[in-house]
Design brief:
six-stranded mixed β-sheet; 6 strands
């Protein structure tokens, strides 16, 4: 098997929409607008974000708005948190380029942040879903939280958001191509066979035709570095839960469950929100319920590590 890279679809998304004309078409489709001059669009995609070395997919200034577009191969409820880091760097750059003084007594005019996540993972998700940073806060705020970031997640798996796809042919074509690759893999073909089939079918149907003719070798390379992401994600989750709650990541998971239990959410709702199964979270959920009303994390961890739970 070739070397793997789970995010080939993310890379392909960036590649497909890197041209201003295609990016403006996508913007128009989302906002139901009819702008025609791609030169009015200023791309400012970050090459590298210092925090955790993260890179954003596509960001640009247009029509007094700062737009951040992210493609996701798996559901990530923490996209609003990542958005905070992205927008922070983007706004710093905007202020510097425009020689603004944040200590000025005059209110600085800033572009309105707009965050869209394009989801095409294997887990079933609604066509539209709002992700908010405040959902991560452990302690429910009595008033509006001081910091909020909202991402609109759009499901772009083939067959979803039909009206959006009709407004942007390139997005439709991208979705079609990804589904063709997946379909061939489901039918037992190798990655190389799936890539070649998807390219041939797409060219025959006029799907991403010009793009594929120019970038056929690069697109095939992207697909050939893909692997069975469903199995990968399953293994990652199982290993994570079996390793216990000593890592910072597992502590965060426990805090999230505590917060949701305090809000009266059921095991099924919590599992769905955390992209897990009720069976995987059953012991954790029960330990948290048993720890009410104090919800002491150390005691809960001790309960979870107890063989009598």
């Amino acid at each position: 098997m070739p070397k793997v890279n789970r995010k080939f679809k993310d890379s392909l998304f960036r590649m497909v929409f890197q041209e201003k004309k295609e990016l403006l078409s996508l913007y128009n489709a989302i906002n139901e607008s009819q702008y025609t001059n791609p030169d009015d669009l200023e791309i400012n995609t970050l090459d590298d974000v210092i925090y955790m070395g993260m890179k954003n997919d596509l960001s640009f200034l247009f029509s007094y708005s700062l737009n951040l577009y992210e493609a996701q191969s798996s559901f990530n409820p923490n996209m609003p948190l990542r958005g905070v880091f992205y927008f922070s760097d983007l706004l710093k750059g905007y202020i510097e380029i425009n020689h603004m003084d944040i200590y000025s007594e005059t209110l600085l005019p800033l572009p309105t942040p707009q965050f869209v996540v394009f989801y095409n993972g294997l887990k079933i998700e609604p066509e539209r879903k709002l992700l908010q940073l405040s959902n991560s806060y452990i302690k429910p705020a009595k008033e509006e939280p001081a910091l909020e970031c909202t991402a609109l997640m759009l499901n772009i798996n083939y067959g979803c958001n039909q009206e959006l796809m009709e407004r942007c042919k390139t997005l439709h074509d991208y979705s079609f191509f990804v589904e063709e690759v997946r379909k061939e893999i489901r039918n037992g073909h190798t990655l190389e066979e799936a890539a070649e089939h998807a390219i041939q079918v797409s060219l025959k149907e006029g799907i991403l035709a010009n793009f594929l003719r120019k970038n056929r070798a690069e697109v095939k390379r992207m697909v050939l570095t893909e692997y069975n992401e469903e199995l990968h994600l399953k293994n990652v989750r199982e290993c994570g839960y079996e390793d216990g709650f000593e890592s910072g990541q597992q502590q965060l998971l426990l805090k999230q469950i505590i917060s949701k239990v305090k809000k009266g959410q059921s095991l099924e709702i919590i599992a769905d929100a955390l992209e897990s199964s009720p069976e995987q979270l059953q012991n954790i959920y029960q330990a948290v319920k048993n720890a009410a009303p104090d919800y002491n994390i150390d005691k809960i961890t001790q309960m979870l590590n107890s063989p009598t739970l």
